[in-house]
Amino acid sequence: MLKRNLLKSLIGVVSVVALTTVAFAADPVKIVYIGKNTGNPYFDSITGGFKDACKSLGCDFEFVAPATAEATSQIPFIEAQVQRGVKVIGIAPNSPDALNQVFDAARAKGILVLTVNGDITKNESHRDATILPTNFDIVGHDQVEMVGSLIGYEGEIAILSATTEAPDQNKWIVGMKETLAKDPKYAKMKLVATVYGDDQPEKSTTEMEALLSNFPNLKGVIAPTTVGIAAAAQVVQGRKIADKVHVTGLGLPSEMRPFIKDGTVKAFQLWSPYNEGWLAVHFAKGVLDGKVKNEVGGKFDVPNLGTITINPGNSINTQSALTTFDAKNIDEYKF
Amino acid sequence: MKSLGTTFLRREAGIVVMIVLFCLVVGAVKPQFLTLNSLRIIFLLVPLIMIGAMGQMLVIVARHVDLSIGSILGLTAMASGMMFRFHPEIWWQLGFALSIGSGALLGLFNGLLITLFRLPAIIVTLGTLNLYRGITFIMSDAKQIDRQYVPTALKEMSQDSPIFGIPWIIFMSFGIATLTYWFSMHTRIGREVFALGSNPTAAPLRGINVSKVTLTVFTISGALSGLAGIMYASRWGFVNPSNTGNGFEFQVIAAVVIGGVSINGGLGTALGTVLGVLLLGCVAAALPLLGIPGTTQNAIYGAVILVALLIDRLVRKQGQRQNVARAAA
User: CA of A212, closest CA in chain B: separation in Å?
Assistant: First the structure.
């Protein structure tokens, strides 16, 4: 290294000298986060956490994402980042199995591969750890409790989901159905339909309109997807029936704020995407520096989040339960 | 000439029959489909497609195609969205001027590439489909314009109006359809679009300025996509760099072709196109109402488009045979 620096200084290019001085001081760890697709406001918040943590820990951060959320569209991005010499790849995987090989290749070069905000279920051995916003096993239950509390635990409810094959959505829907079937607290609530708006506003709107036409006694709708909940709220707002049909689900405060303010939606839930990025960087830097051991049961401290435990399957959660947003607290959240 | 008139009417009558039959069948299963409320849902679903379809109809009649309209919609919606976000003090109505104006320029650019370099429209607009979408990402830094930035008055245009509470955007879409009818039937350049499409080789010999007609149809298509762009912000209350307008071209081209516009150019009417748009709107509104599972809706939607095209083709063949028979007699 020194020899090369001497050689370069001999050439006498001022800029090169400046560059090598920086390289000498500390080679900043390069961290990349690969999103599902560009233009998805949800990832702005995760990226914000990555950026701030990288600023405070002194690493070099980049966000990239393919134009479309197809199964294989992330592969060239991963390959390019490996070429660039990143030390950490954080990724929201678009497929549970299409990325296995390219992950293996990256890890063979000593790169830490973390799935952030979504895991490669059944292929966990191809990544080092996963950072999920909350325990996805309890999301279904919490959403049923949310809608139950809004409708007085009695009456017809429906689910407006994203696409039919979305793994997280389906996991939560199973959780909702199990909760409704088993817990006597929800015995008087009846799930009348599960429909899919494909995360398009047009389709979500027609599905929501159809729910209202087909089930005139509908009292609650759970839309566990950011596009769906906004579309459902817009329909309810347009029809002025917020007192009869309660829309809730998982939404972004930035998108839902107007509906909370005018009373169309009383409350909805989510986690903090920001904290996922924040935690991912602290974890990764700790592992690279040898301060954190990536093993089940291991504990480490993250500023603002407290002590975090590595759960079975090298799974790390940023929070134990969903955050509920309502008129009282929505202005505290800036994402 | 009289027989030509009847073929036109026959084609449009065919679509009307299809719409009525479809609605009756759906209504038999789900009576709530035959209510004013359904009509409202359908009419709120189609305005953007109808406006895009009017421009596309002219382009296809001129024997071209414009695949870039969805990206023009996205870019022009984003341009206004960013104006709303970063300059909320500006009079919001200027969003219409900005979106329509920028849409016209993007359409003109398509037309210039096609006429100056004699490139096929399908290739040029396939290129600008990606180019315009890419520019949308660059200028927005891939950030969505959230609901809170879109002016309330603009959003209300999709919800209400003083005239029986029928939202403004519905009037606007039918207004554009009427204007297109007038343009295509009663203006010199409108008729030249048909002349060019029915025989591109003969058109210049008859003194038609082919470049001018081509530039006109693409500029109109771009401007109308721009209008659809600002209406997207009104209807859905947000602008997203990747979703907004994505796939719009397919919905629009399907509606235009179902509406009896010949993909070989020279044939098509504004009325037929309106009916094609309405048929697609009925289908889109009916599928979820019938409780058809999400997994099969796409396949059925596609099948309905094909069936509509086949019926249209059969009706047209029948009509031609009768005309030939009449001419022979």
Answer: 9
CATH topology of domain A136-270: Rossmann fold (3.40.50)
How long is chain B? 329
Q: Summarize the confidence of residues A192-196 as an average pLDDT.
A: 96
Can you state the percent helix, strand and coil of chain B, rounding each to 5?
75, 0, 20
pLDDT of residue A280: 97
Backbone angles phi, psi at A88, to 5 degrees: -135, 130
Does A99 or A11 have the greater pLDDT score? A99
- Please choose, from the candidates A91, A93, A112, the residue with its C-alpha nearest in 3D space to the C-alpha of residue A47: A91
Give chain B positions within 8 Å (CB) of A40. Answer: 144, 242
Per the structure block, which two tokens stand in for A121?
């279920």
User: In chain A, what is the straight-line distance between the N-terminal and C-terminal CA atoms, in Å?
Assistant: 44
Which residues numbered 230-289 in B keep a CB inside 8 Å of some CB on A? 236-238, 240-243, 284-285, 287-289
- DSSP, collapsed to helix, strand or coil, labels residue A114 as strand
Q: Which two tokens stand for residue B237?
A: 């209350």
Pick the residue of A63, A213, A262 with the most B CBs within 10 A to test the interface with B by mutation.
A213
C-alpha Rg value of chain B to the nearest Å: 20
A93 class by beta-carbon count within 10 Å (0-12 exposed, 13-18 middle, 19+ buried): buried
Residue A321 CA, distance from chain mean position: 14
Arch. (CATH architecture) of A2-132+273-319: 3-Layer(aba) Sandwich (3.40)
The pLDDT of residue B296 is: 86
In this prediction the pTM is 0.85
- Helix B69-86 vs helix B47-61: angle between axes, to the nearest 10 degrees? 130
Q: A277, A53 in Cβ contact below 8 A?
A: yes
**Residue-wise pLDDT tens digits, A155-181:** 999 999 998 888 789 989 999 999 999
Closest of B181, B199, B198 to residue B190, by C-alpha: B181
Residue A2: what pLDDT?
A: 52
Tokens of A236: 């309810």
- Counting every residue, how long is chain A? 335
Q: Phi and psi at residue B302, in whole multiples of 5°?
A: -65, -40
Along chain B (329 residues), what's the average pLDDT of each consecutive run of 10 residues? Answer: 56 89 95 91 95 98 97 98 96 97 98 97 97 96 91 92 90 98 96 95 93 98 98 95 93 93 92 96 93 85 86 73 65
Domain boundaries of chain A, sorted by first residue: 2-132+273-319, 136-270
